[in-house]
Amino acid sequence: MQANILIVDDDPGLRELLVDYLGQNGLEARAVPDGTALWPALEAGPVDLLILDLMLPGDDGLELCGQLRAADAPWRTLPVIMLTARGEETDRIVGLELGADDYLPKPFNPRELLARIRGLLRRSRMPPARQDDPAGTAGERVRYRFAGWLLDPAAHTLAGPDGQVHTLGGADTRLLQALAARPGRPLSRDRIMDITRGRDASPYDRSIDVQVSRLRRLLGDDAREQRIIRTLRNEGYLMACDVERVA
C-alpha cells in the first residue's frame, strides 16, 4: 500500500525514526517540527494521512486539528492520527471532538502506529458504497435520507432539514454510514471501531462514545430521547429512525 504520510512532531529523534521506519515499510514519509511548517508541507505535495503530535510549540495539535477540519479548509477530510501523552484522556477526547480519526498515546511501538496507518488508509480509500454496507456495490454512489437529513458518504457531507450542508471527517462519515446502512440493527463498539479505525476497542476506549455524542449534537438528537441514534446498554448503538437509500 503506497501512501504519502506527513508527520508533525517537535522531537527530531522521533521524526527521524518514524520517517525511516515508515519508509522501510513501503510508505513515503516526511516530517516537520511544528504547525508553522505544516501548511507549506501540505501545499508542497500530496498527503494521504497526517500524524499530528498534541504537544507542539505555537499552535498545538488540538488547534491545528480544528483548523484542518474548518469548513473552508481544503484538507478537512484528511485522515488524522493524533499522538498524545499517556494518561491525557481529556486531550484525546477533545482531539476526537475536533475531528481526529484516531489517536495513539506515547510512548508507542512503531508497529502499532503502522497498523493504525494501514487500517485508516484502507478505510479512507474504500469506495463509500462498500464501507461496511452489504447492499452497496463498488463504484455505486449511495446516499442515505433519514429524519430530514441527507448523508452523502462520497462527498463527506450531511445536509440538514434547513438545507445547510455540513462537512464530516472520515471517521464520522464511516460511523454514520455504518448505522444508516443497517437501520434498526445494533452495532457493537468493537464493530464500529473496526469500521471507522480498523482495530478493536480497548475496554476503556471512549472514542466511539465521543463520536456518537458529536454526531448527536450535529443532528439535534437529544441524548434522552434518542430519536435518531439509540444507545443499547451492553450492545452498542443503532439507527432508530427510518432510512431511505437514495442512488
What does this 3D model show about the protein?
The protein has 247 residues and is of the alpha/beta class. It has two domains: 4-125, Rossmann fold (3-Layer(aba) Sandwich), CATH 3.40.50; 128-246, Winged helix-like DNA-binding domain superfamily/Winged helix DNA-binding domain (Arc Repressor Mutant, subunit A, Orthogonal Bundle), CATH 1.10.10. It contains eight helices and twelve strands. Strand 10 (229-232) and strand 11 form a beta hairpin. 36% of the residues are buried.
Integer count of domains? 2
Q: Could you list the spans in which at least 5 consecutive residues all have pLDDT below 50?
A: 134-138
Distance between the termini: 30 Å
Q: Would you state the CATH class of the largest domain?
A: Alpha Beta
What is the H-and-E element order?
EHEHEHEHEHEEEEHHHEEE
Largest sheet: 5 strands, parallel
What Rg, in angstroms, do the CA atoms define?
18 Å
Helix/strand-derived class?
alpha/beta
Fourth-level CATH superfamily of the largest domain: Response regulator
How helical, in percent, are the residues?
25-40%
**Tally of helical segments:** 8
Overall geometry comes to: globular
CATH architecture name of the largest domain = 3-Layer(aba) Sandwich
Q: How are the strands of the largest sheet arranged?
A: 2-1-3-4-5
What's the number of extended β-strand segments? 12
CATH topology of the largest domain: Rossmann fold
Query: What number is the mean pLDDT?
Result: 85
Beta-strand content estimate: 15-25%
Short description:
The chain is α/β, with parallel strands linked by helices. It has helices at residues 12-24, 35-44, 61-68, 89-97, 110-125, 170-180, 189-197, 207-219; strands at 4-8, 28-32, 49-53, 80-85, 102-106, 143-146, 149-152, 157-159, 165-167, 229-232, 236-239, 244-246. Strands 2-1-3-4-5 form a five-stranded parallel sheet, with helices on both faces. Strands 9-8-7-6-12 form a five-stranded antiparallel sheet, covered by helices on one side. It has a two-stranded antiparallel sheet with strand order 10-11.
